[in-house]
Please model this.
Amino acid sequence: MRSTNSTKEAIKQWLHVSASPETRDRIWREVLFVQEESSKTTSALIQPNIWRTIMKSPLTKIGAAAVIIISVVFLITFFDKAATPAYALEQTIEANHTIKTVHLRMFEDGRSIENNEFSDYWIKYNDAGMLSNLRCNEHDKDGVRFTIWNEGIKKTWIPEKNVVFLNRLNNTDKAWEDFAKEFEPKFRLQWLYDQADEKEALEIKIDEPAEDSNSIYVKATHSVHKVRAELVVDRKTKLIKKFSIYHLREQEYELDMRFEFLAYNQPIDPSMFELSGIPDNAKVYDQVNQLVGLEKGDLTNEEIAVKVVREGLKATIAKDYGQVRKLMEGDPGDTIEEFIEKEFEARLVRIVSIGRAEEHEKINRVLYFVPCEIEVENEERGRWIVNIIATATAIEHQDNRWIMHTDFRVSEPYILSTKALNEQDRIEGNIIVPGLRVGDYTFDMSKDEVLKRLGGPKAINYGGERYTLNNLPTRYYMVFDDVSFRIVDDSVKEITVLGPSYQFTNGLGVGDSEQKIKQAFGDDFQSRKEEGKDYLCYDAKGLAFEIHKKNQTVAEIVVYQPEGVPRVLRTLPKYDPDSTNPFQMDLRCRDLSKLDLTNSIDDLLYATFDDRTVWPAPNRMPSDFTWQKIMELGKNPGLGIRSLHKKGITGHGVSIAILDQPLLVDHQEYAERLRLYEEIHIRSGTEPQMHGPAVASIAVGKTVGVAPEAELYYISQWNFDWEKEHTPTLRYLAQGIHRIVAINEQLPKDKKIRVISISKGWTRSHKEYKLITEAAQKARAAGMLVVCTSVDLVHDGCDFGGLGRSPLADPEVFESYEPGLFMVRAFSTYSDDCIWVPMDSRTTASPCGIDKYVFYRQGGFSWAVPYIAGVYALAVQVDPAITPEKFWSLAMQTGRTIELDYNGKKIPFGPIIDPVRLIRAIQAGEPATSNRQQNGTQPTETHPQTHSGAHTIVPGVGVGDYTLDMSKDDVLKKLGEPRDIFLGEKEYTLDNLPRRYFMSYGDVSFAINDDSVTGIGVHSPLYKFTNGLAVGDSEDKIKQAFGNDFQLEEFEGMDVLIYEERGLRFEIDKKTRTVDEISVTQAKHNQ
Amino acid sequence: MIEDELLKWKFKQGSTEALSCIYQKYLDDLLTLAVGLLNDPNEAEDIVQDVFVSFVKSAKNFMLRGSLKAYLATSVVNRVRDRIRKRRTRSLGRDRLEADIDVQGPDQSLIYSEQWQRLIRALDELPYKQREVILLRLKSEMKFREIAKVQNVSVHTAMARYKCGLNRLRSSLNGEVRK
Model:
């Protein structure tokens, strides 16, 4: 009988195929072809360069030490070509194979030896010869710095500064490769290899002096590249004792680096690879557990450099130190705040402008210098402008993320603009501050405040008309002696300096030459002509100069708020539930940093804001209001949409049309989805509006959208007649629909537009009702769902309501929803014949930048319409034959009804659209059983699992809608074909089922015995107990909640807690002691 | 190991010579693995060609600290699994057609050892995961730790599969009837 060993041998020896010569040649040709093609796009990687003596980064040093042994081995391999037979270098190569640990000392140059500055390394290798653990003690004039590296994590402690850094550094990642590039031997080896025949350039000497019986000396000198390497090899062990690299400078070879190998293969105490003694109060810069800096995305290096510096300065102004630390490198250098304090004895109050980033290489990493004009202040001098250079760079250990470097410097213009203000200037305050103020006049002043200070104006005019204080239009100019104000809606929008009494801090003002202005403010201006006047405009600074045509001097200086600079709010608006204004709590692009909002949670929870909103420091914010979390929750379309995306149901291949206001076409949310953009009746130069980006991103946004892979056809149109005093009209909307229908006719069959999203409605009494109805019906006849806020007028019986959600409530949970804010008052008038869809509390693309977002607390039907369009796209993807009417009917049938507290009573509320069940129903070819059908009009009162929600685990009963009394066929009907059917190692199909088996659907699985469900397993935190516990929670929490009356079964890698009485099992991961799986089974007393 | 390290590094620098060495060194091993897993020489050739083509395309970003052989073997395994997944979704008619092709016997593009048919038949009777672990261990010389990672199971499970698979193989090769 064959033994196991002989079986192994048989496989090893006899199980073998080899490619025939033809096959070998055919595959090789293909591979070679691909390599040649690839090489055309790959630049030469090998660039012999000078040996760098300075390795600033500790990472480099660690890397250098780690690679040294293998490098030396390579080096010797190549030197071998010229070696004398007296010394067999292969012995050293062989000897290096035996190295398990090494203790080495590194000196960086001659000076470090003189100053007794060195680094000790203890290195441990694994069986594969790869570095597994490392410790480094760096000794320099400032003391000792300790670094350990274990399994991809680097930890450094600097006792002198009492800081600890945690970095991730794998020896497979790019940072590791970077060090290898810097560390010359490997690359020099390639060069040696390439030039192996140039023996005349390479001189190798091996010396085995008889008088020194312990050592062999190897010296390799390359006369062209002026590099020398010296090795001292132990004669007995053939291991390297010393390794030095020299570079020729001024006729002499100077030491660049020396390694002394102090011990090989001596056991290293495991505690050496730990850092002990770190004080509790040490400052920890953690780049392992948190991302730092900003993601570069598609930005250029220059753009991300400017962005990261801007964000760093903004966070500093907001005193958001957590953000500052996140945006800055984890070195213990100065923060910008400390730098400004040190340089100017002042604090940063405002960014005036940020210039173009310029690339500068500094030693071994590329840095970008970003010139910044900032305003600083102190009690003594008030406010003034200074110029500094900030620095940005890509972070080493986190791919594609950039940080603000700790290297700041004062830049040249500083000398000009920070000249001390004379006493008179300070008292009179006649300073022009670009983008901010003229003297004491600022943009947050009202018309009345201006009048109070300056008395009656010399003139009031606008567009050639003159006005009086009794007869003011909405917009006008108030002109005084040497200053005038542009007023809009009673607020100052621009301040114009008309005479020389106001000056910049650099002394420039009205009457100075155009040339001086350009010298001082740079060439980044636009020339504009307005009303016959010539202007030099520095829009980023909020500054324009009118230039006299004749003598080229400054006639006027206009100061205005630069685009995108948050406007300072001095008080927070109060939320009024009776107000119908959706923007009563509009905090978009507002600077709240001066406010104390600690007690404003009730108002803030109704705020609309964006990522330009400047928030107060955390200690002046309510602890339970996290705007970042609100923003993130708002991005989630909710109700299981993302789970559909994970299954590939993304609207892929389905075309959606949107008719709305002008779009910011390049926004990252939908730019890749946009197939067509046209404008109808839009004035040229019209900026993108807030409405378009919002609806487009809700429908097809890649992170916020319902159908992120649908194709987008967008027509922007304005529903007003300019010619008829801005009267509303549906004419252009109708034109847009006709245009979509015409485009659709040109599209191939499989690319037809299936849904038009119009966030607008009309009534039968509208004077253009016939016009718009004709257009809509034409689209409908072309097979499109025309979803608009009056969808029932296009598709009979189709209607919807809009859902609200408290901003911090989980959008995935049905119970988080309620009638939308603007519907609350009229809620009782809504029938249950409409499907309810998310509307409020959505984060969408912003019109203010391609990577900007807005959180809209109140949506209006406008946000519900693209949501429905998105869900329809998902439906079309799974069933291209679906019709709008069938879709709507299934949505109503599969929707969920929840319990709502209304006027002190609990009432059923719904149906809320349930995209997951809807899609399942469509896939199954028939509707899934809705809870309406199950339970009549009061579904929440009859069935335990619906009582507690769609994703609730009910011990002994079931999980969500799945119960232990279901049959295998019920499960298949509800969920379709399972992902896997198995028992133990064996897999089955539906045609080949044993008596007992498991059917897995990803989040849930079912134990089936004789066609009945006997257990339901939950594998994801989507399903929770009513107390909130779920997969991923700790074992301790489970025991606290369910007590200690359980049986314990131990398996490989896991423990199982069995609560028989309750009908529950928890699989606990032995390593993490967290719940891996929850199983609901028959409770013992029920059995 | 040094040789592979050098080959990896030179390959990354764009050396055709290094690529050729890697190709010559591992082509047959990878083919053996692929045929062993799939019992389909045509698909195995496709897979191995895919593996080398991807390998070449990855040169620019290639970073590998571990064994080159294990890396290539894992690439083969991943592609084999993809194929098997696709096979499952094919129609019955197609499966039957392929079965017909299979019975025609191995094509002439590969050269087989004498014992091949017997061994491959025995291997084919094993559950796929056991077959995979046996081939990765015995033909690709991967460590159980590495195999466990590939199969996303614990080392113990990988070892158990190996042991169980070997026992079954032995029984099969000895002509015993499995109960």
In short: The CA atoms of residues 127 and 177 of chain B lie 16 Å apart. DSSP finds nine helices and one strand in chain B. Chain B touches chain A through 63 residues (CB under 8 Å).
